[in-house]
Structures are given as structure tokens and as C-alpha cells.
TrEMBL record:
Pfam families: FecR, FecR_C. Residues 1-20 are annotated as: Disordered. Gene3D superfamilies: 2.60.120.1440, 3.55.50.30. Residues 74-160 form the FecR protein domain. It comes from the Bacteria. The chain crosses the membrane at residues 44-61. Keywords: Membrane, Transmembrane, Transmembrane helix. Residues 213-272 form the Protein FecR C-terminal domain. InterPro entries: FecR, FecR_C, Ferrdict_sens_TM. Residues 8-20 have a biased composition (Basic and acidic residues). This is FecR family protein.
């Protein structure tokens, strides 16, 4: 009996009072809270570090891969590309060059006007993408001019192949002192000779053997405007025939012979006067 009483008294001595239990629980809770906050801080620190590294990596990748953009805002600027090609970007022009330049194909994107002096490379073609058209060269000197829908390339040295982006099978190859012009319409393609006078290039009306005309469903009034500008002649025609669609190809012809062929294809009558030409019904 005495032993049992002693054990009961020892157990009672080991039991905590309500106040001690409360204090002990609060200490345990505080310790748990501290551990949880510490874990959260550690997780937050790791997460923040990961985000920072991701941002730095993305920024670095973006900077290393985004194209280089050159702007000629209010004056001409001269550029030297990584392959040694030189570009005179005319006022108002914009040139975009991929970071991968020069790759197997040297590609640049032009808005506005520029003169290119391309370093020759038989293995790596140089392509200038413009508004709906592109000019492909191996090594040459040429000028590209664009305004709204108008696209013109003047070649001074070497060779250039001009094509429309949506019709790459239609290729117009230029030789030195020739120009390609669409006269503001994608249904028109004209290759003419150019001559240099006092440092400026102009269409050579006398050099008619180098004139190549291509019309693909163009309106008659549009076609006649091109013929007038190209050959420097004046043509009268009935207003009611303006919307007549014309598809024809003429190469190395005089202006008069082109008009005769045009009259035949549209069912009009061709007449020649002292002051110019006329197409009649």
C-alpha cells in the first residue's frame, strides 16, 4: 500500500499545472510559427532568385536574338554590315537586320529608300525584302525606292533578281543600268534602261531595246499611264474603256508597236497623229 501511495504522489508531482501547460503550449506554438516563417522566407528567397534568374536570362536571350533596327529619321545615315556590305539609308528609311546575319542567306528588311553596296559572296545570297517585293543579289550596287505601293530598283553594277513575295516564280533579272518599276501597282512590272547624267539616274527613252513590260489584269487607264511615262508619248483613249482589264507581255518593242498590240487585244482601233496616238472604239 505504501508503495502505491508513493507512486501516486510522484506522478502528481510530475503533472503540470494548467498555467504551466498553457505556457508550454504557447512556447511550442511560437517555435512552430518561427520554423514555418523561416521555411516560407527560404522558399520566397529561392522563388525570388529563380524569377530574377529567369528575367535576366530572358532579357539576355532577347537582347542576343532580337533584330538590329537602324533608323534614318531626318537625315541619311551610312551603315557597314557584318559581312562588309555598305548601306546608305536615306532619310525616313528603316533597316532591320537579324542577329543571325550573316547566315547562309544574308537577309535584311527595308522600309523606305536605301542604296546598297553588297560584298560579293557566291555561296551566300543577299536578299532585301521590301513592300511586297524582294531583290536578290550576290554582289552588286543598287538603289531601292519605296513609297506607299510604289517599288523601284535601279541597278548600277552586278546583277539583281527582283520578284514579288507572293509570286516568286515571276523573276525580273536586271543588268547594269537597268531599273525595275511597278508604277504603284502589283499588276504592273516594267524593266527599263537608265542612264547617268550629272550624277543622277533617269530612264533612257532612247534606249528602248531594254524595255520589258508585263501587265497582269491591269486596267487600261493604268496600262496607258505606264506606257506614256515609259516611252514619253501621249495617248488618247475613250473614257468608257478605262476599266478594261489588260494582260500582256511586251519586250524590246517601240511604244508604237506596244500600242498596236494593245489595241488588238482590247478590240480598239489604233491611230497615229502628229501630236500623239489615239485608241478609238
Amino acid at each position: 500500500m505504501k508503495n502505491n501511495e508513493i507512486n501516486d504522489q510522484e506522478k502528481k508531482g510530475q503533472e503540470l499545472t494548467p498555467e504551466e501547460s498553457k505556457t508550454l503550449w504557447e512556447n511550442i506554438s511560437v517555435g512552430i510559427d518561427r520554423q514555418e516563417k523561416k521555411k516560407k522566407k527560404q522558399k520566397l528567397g529561392v522563388t525570388t532568385m529563380i524569377i530574377v534568374l529567369m528575367v535576366i536570362g530572358f532579357w539576355g536571350y532577347h537582347r542576343m536574338t532580337r533584330p538590329e533596327v537602324f533608323m534614318a529619321e531626318d537625315r541619311d545615315i551610312e551603315l557597314v554590315l557584318k559581312d562588309g556590305s555598305k548601306v546608305k539609308l536615306l532619310s525616313g528609311g528603316k533597316l532591320t537586320v537579324e542577329r543571325s546575319f550573316p547566315a547562309d542567306t544574308r537577309e535584311v528588311y527595308l522600309e523606305g529608300n536605301a542604296v546598297f553596296r553588297v560584298t560579293r559572296s557566291g555561296a551566300h545570297p543577299f536578299i532585301v525584302y521590301g513592300n511586297n517585293y524582294q531583290a536578290k543579289v550576290l554582289g552588286t550596287v543598287f538603289k531601292m525606292m519605296q513609297e506607299k505601293n510604289t517599288f523601284r530598283v535601279e541597278l548600277y553594277k552586278g546583277k539583281v533578281a527582283v520578284s514579288e513575295n507572293e509570286h516568286k516564280d515571276r523573276v525580273y533579272e536586271l543588268s547594269p543600268h537597268e531599273a525595275f518599276d511597278n508604277y504603284g501597282s502589283r499588276k504592273v512590272a516594267v524593266v527599263t534602261g537608265i542612264s547617268t547624267v550629272a550624277g543622277t539616274e533617269k530612264t533612257s527613252k532612247d534606249n528602248i531595246q531594254h524595255i520589258n513590260l508585263q501587265f497582269d489584269g491591269a486596267r487600261l487607264d493604268e496600262v496607258l499611264l505606264v506606257i506614256e511615262k515609259t516611252y514619253g508619248i501621249r495617248v488618247e483613249y475613250p473614257a468608257e474603256a478605262s476599266a478594261t482589264l489588260v494582260s500582256m507581255h511586251s519586250e524590246n518593242r517601240t511604244g508604237e508597236s506596244v500600242l498596236q498590240a494593245l489595241a488588238l487585244s482590247t478590240g480598239l482601233t489604233f491611230k497615229k497623229y502628229d501630236t500623239g496616238y489615239q485608241l478609238e472604239k
